[in-house]
Amino acid sequence: MAQQAMGTILCMSSYEKGHEFIREAKRQGWHVIFMTNENLRHADWPRECIDEFFVMPTLTVRDHMLNAVSYLARANPISRIVALDEFDLEMAAALREHLRLPGMGESVNRHFRDKLAMRKQAAACDIRVPEFSPVFNYDALRYYLARIPGPWVLKPRSSASAIGIRKIHEADEIWSILEQLGDAQSNYLIEQFVPGEVFHVDSIVAGGKVLFATASRYGAPPINISHEGGVFISRILPRRSSLARKLRKINKKVIKGLGMVDGVTHAEFIRGEVDGKLYFLEIAARVGGANIPEMVEAATGVNLWAEWAKVELADPRDRYEPQPVRDLLAGIIITLARQEWPDLSAYDDHEVVWRMVRRHHAGLIVAASEPGRIEELLDSYNTRFHEDFHTSLPVPDRATN
Q1: How far apart, in whole angstroms, are the C-alpha atoms of residue 352 and residue 355?
Q2: How distant is the alpha carbon of residue 251 from its chain centre?
Q3: In a domain, 363, yes or no
Q4: Which of 147, 171, 192 is the last residue of a domain?
Q5: Which of 10, 108, 216, 366 is most solvent-facing, going by the fewest CB within 10 Å?
Q6: Buried (b) or exposed (e) across 106-126, using 16+ Cβ within 10 A?
Q7: H-helix or E-strand containing 364?
Q8: What digits encode the pLDDT tens for the residues 90-110?
Q9: pTM above 0.85?
Q10: Residue 377 placed within a domain
């Protein structure tokens, strides 16, 4: 793929992530401006690849960000703006609209940030979703609660992952919570709780086509980990399995229906334990959290952050095509740890290809050619992690997505 003439890209993030995106942008010859929150001024950013570094008190105040970026544009011909963290996607879309830059605008961005918008659009595209209701008209909500049996989940429309989600068993409880929320209640939706296995599909999209996708299965559903604690587990499904094929097919339909053109996505689906059907849960226009990119890279050799940068910065006349260099399976296990720096040296199986180095966290990635070996290791490590490291108590530096 030919390299586009040098331009200026503004990367922004309110969470420490996306280092490889920044490095790849610099490798592609771009002038990199980076903007983050004041409290991340001294984080371990790849500063050797950042040409200009700016901090703001917060990246969430629209007028302040429009003024700041417009001021930067006086001396810098900014031609791309990319949010590396999900909580900055809306601001990046607003900035693109203001500066009239290519990329996802505010309307399409809602399909990847607003859980109500993505459900409505998916349903309009004949994609199966759990029965849901916005929190606008009370008569419509009463009809929904009478028609759809509980339990239900109350979800913030714009939060990431399982943050802020509440499971509700009685209709009276819903009305009590809505009263507490007051004017904020329209920022939520109510959805039927569908028990079952939860999956995620991580994709690279270019020119409106899904050119790379891996399907994976979580251990405990993310909502359980978020609310009850526990050990986070995921593993990549065998690529040629029937389930992986079905997940990639519905994932492709979601991406097309919601209007993604160029970028990366992290989508989640659930297979109902009662009917066995796949339901679309949500999708984000970002690289997945919880070190999922490291798991994908361990199995395929594809670094989602670097490939995202290539997609964003590619000359539209060129054909982008990721090149997997490995055909393995991989699994990841992570837990909050009671030790400040957990000792993982006893986990010495040759399939271990990555070890987490983070305060109060223990984590490993394993890679192998046989799915049975991945399952064997994850099952064993799950038991050992509970014994050796796991804590349900609050610890410093807890991951949020």
Answers
A1: 8
A2: 14
A3: yes
A4: 192
A5: 108
A6: eebbbbbbbbbbbbbbbeeee
A7: strand 361-368
A8: 999 999 999 999 999 999 999
A9: yes
A10: yes
